[in-house]
Amino acid sequence: MVAHLYPALFAVALWWAATGLILYLDGLRRETFGWTFGGATVLMVAALFGLHTSAQDTGITGAYCAFTSAIFVWGWIEVSFLTGFITGPRRERCPDGARGWPRFRAAVAAILWHELAILAGAVAVLSITAGAPNRIGAWTFLLLAVMRLSAKLNIFLGVRNLGESLLPAHLRYLESYFRRRPMNALFPFSVVGAVVLFAWLVAQAIDAEVAAAAGYTLLAALVALAILEHAFMVAPIPPEAMWRWSLASRDGADDGTSSVSTWKSGMLADCDPEVLEQVLGDVARGDYGQVLSLRGVLRSGSGWVRLDLTEGKPVLRPIVPRGMERPVIVAIGRTLDHSRLQAAFAACALRAA
Question: Which residues pair with 242 in a beta bridge?
Fold first, then answer.
């Protein structure tokens, strides 16, 4: 039992700490991103060397080293994306009204270079470990790539919790490619496939000798984390709950000014159009803090509208809701007065009622 407990705890701790650290660093000022990306690059080079060295080691040490090295290579890909160095040729919101293939094509363009970076990383990892007896590093990277692809597709097709508040301010345009729904047709297959894979890995870990059991347990723990990540997409608890500590860098101060923070609220009732315009005008004037961006969809008057507030200009556009569209408003800015923002938009709903 202990032979399986330690690898599982190690995998969970490494994944949680690495993901949290990346989110924390990405919440700092953009002037720090060059140092973050440079440090991640150094670690990635070291990790590739670690994969090369551990590929010939079939012992417990080799399993841990290969697993950790693959996580660090993946971490470089995440850092390159979240800092904005490697994203895609399209760096703007999804076109209003885009559906079907045009929407999918625009979404792919928004993250195309990132996807190619994942492909390049997979080629590098597979090339380094090709023909070697220890393939834990290769399987780790491939599992990370598959679970992330599944998460992206499910968020694109629609889930309850999109995790948009985890996006840094400079990537918030990506949330326009997300879709909020209770669930989508792909989601059950994603979860069932992951559960089957988890059960197979656990069975392999139980039957294997000590060194191989450690490797299978590390992989099984990674799949369990993927299942948990998918569960958060449809659970009543938002995924941000796991990363409160890592988001602290977005709420602190630097050089005398507050860093970026996020406010989010679901509008469960219709919003009075006149009051809504007044609130947006107050927001644009800075009555609720320095709002860098405010976006959302909600019911107002006789239909649904999409609201945008960028560069101090509020814009309301009528839209046709997508399936089980849910009202939501997200604001990003400095020195945001969260309680007054909540009260202001609540007043819209009360006036309409």
Answer: none
Give residues with Cβ within 8 angstroms of 30, minimum separation 6: 170
pLDDT digits (tens, 9 = 90+) for 91-127: 888 887 788 999 999 999 999 999 999 999 999 999 9
Nearest to 84 by CA among 48, 36, 46, 145: 36
62 class by beta-carbon count within 10 Å (0-12 exposed, 13-18 middle, 19+ buried): buried
- CA 94 to each of CA 102, 147, 183, 210, 320: distance values in angstroms, whole numbers, following the listed order: 9, 24, 21, 50, 15
Phi and psi based region of residue 176 (left: phi greater than 0; alpha: psi -120 to 50; beta: remaining) = alpha
What are the beta bridge partners of residue 328? 297
48 in Cβ contact with 69 (< 8 Å) = yes
Nearest to 307 by CA among 290, 285, 284, 329: 329
Per-residue pLDDT reduced to its tens digit, 297-343: 888 877 888 888 755 677 888 887 766 667 888 888 767 788 888 88
- The CATH number of domain 251-352 is 2.120.10.30: no
Enclosing H/E stretch for 271: none
Query: Are the C-beta atoms of 229 and 243 separated by less than 8 Å?
Result: no
C-alpha pair distances (Å), 279 with each of 167, 276, 298, 302, 317: 25, 5, 14, 19, 16
CATH 3.30.1220.10 domain residues, the chain: 251-352
Q: Report the predicted TM-score, pTM, of the whole model to 2 decimal places.
A: 0.75
Apex 171 CA angle, 168 and 177, nearest 5: 125
